[in-house]
Amino acid sequence: MTRSWLRALAALWRQLNGDTAYADYCRHLATQHAQHAPLDRGAFYQAELVRRWNGVRRCC
Description:
Order of helices and strands: HHH
Radius of gyration: 16 Å
Number of strands: 0
């Protein structure tokens, strides 16, 4: 039971810190947008940086 609990905790940690983002993106693209070719890992990372950090990032 302890190993399965640790595996679940590790999977949750990877999900929360974004380690699974590229795999999630590829899975989504394959199921929802099959006509589009997926970005490679480097291009995906750059696109995510732009999406997250471009624009206004303050409350007021």
